[in-house]
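Bug #77: duplicate submission created two jobs. Keeping one. Sequence:
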Amino acid sequence: MKKKVLLLGETWTVTKIHTKGFDVVELGGFDDYSVYFKEPMKAFEDIEVTHIPNHQVLSM
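Kept job's structure:
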């Protein structure tokens, strides 16, 4: 029987503003650091990981 693990979060949105002289560039992105937990857990056949990202947890 598999053990079930619920991982909440470990994701976030990123906003960066780069300024050089009069040039301003806004950059955005999404980082998912849950992979650093989920990938090693794949080595264990008796563990099942379910991940819910931050933005979905907040809307539940």
